[in-house]
Amino acid sequence: MIQSSRTARRTLSVLLAAGLGLTVAACGGAGGSGDKALTYWSMWRENEPQAQVLKESAEAFKKSTGIEVKIEWQGRDVLKKVAPALRGGDLPDLVDQEENQIRATLVANNAQRDLSGLYGSTTPSGAKVSEVVPDRYLTNAKKDGKLFMLPYTLLGFGLFYNGAALPEVASKPPARWADFTQLLAKRKSEGKTPLALDGDVGDYNSYWTIAVLQGALGVGKVSELAKDHAGTAWNTEAVKNALGEVRKLVQNGYFIPGYDGSKFPAVQEKWAQGEADFVNVGSWVPSEVGKKAVPGFQFKFMPFPAISGKVNVPSSTVGFAIPQRAKQAENAEKFVAFFLGDEHLGKISSVAKNLTPNAKLTAPPELADVGKALAEHELSRPLDGVDADYPGYNNEVFNPVNDQLIKGKIDVDQFLTQLAAAQANYWKKNG
Fold this sequence. Notes:
The chain is of the alpha/beta class.
């Protein structure tokens, strides 16, 4: 579960020992494999299920190869601890985090190792790494065509609901916005609360607005609007109409009472208790609220309905990266390929209850719908990638204005005026 990473919500080389058949011949970068060890700084805490899986894999890796994996459980701020060392100092040989954070730290400083050679290597289960991690999930894990990370966890974003309470949705989820809002109106008329939202989390508020915009404008269009230095590119009829749909959600009273003054995770726990129908978050939510859910709760997922065009599913990954100056880079690559074998990667699903990029591994029942949606629909980026493309943009520009829109404090025209001013100021400082 990725629950502590709210910004992220609100991601082997030469021959191993006998018979493993791992070959990574052309893996550029620094570092040799002379020492029988590597240092790994992990984003997990030692008491988390992911840490249990990784620790067991490291022990098995040492038994198979004689190479010790020295793990330091750094937690979610692992890359904040890596960043100062990029300017001089000892770096770990291996790190893991969500793809956008790896891009913002290692790649932004040209400090990443090219993992393209590793991608062609073989895992202990006999499959190529390229078979375990399809290229479909690597679009945002490359810089200039070169791979800078390899994921072991997939994240999907969209609408979660209780299939036991909404069997008609489970049998035929609405794919068009008009059908979805008709369902919301019906549920409201029956005395139900359609939507849950912890309104104190800026990214959670923006998941709604940007998903509506993605479903109206298409994938990547919000990011294009955000790069306009004048901030006026938003002022179009298509944008206004989409923002108007968000405003209608507020005006029609579809959000749970008190959402605008809530404190996370109060509302999503109310959702798990059956006090609201849908919550729009990432695939960590079953792990976060599982113990709070009412008996018989069936975690179901549906992609966010589109106003026009194709339905898309925002997706991100969590995975491994190797700093360019890593001293034991080849040992790190060996461990990555070892971990991506079925025996160990499979436990990310069975023990940690997360999705893996390997479609042959059984997904956790709570996330089966998410895995199916990621495999079948066009993929986009959470928040359309604006947080990755323009560091600080979300917190400085979009979220503060959107918070007011989704809490009913401003209308669409005021949103556009305030956003344009904030965006122009952002680019004045960062242009």
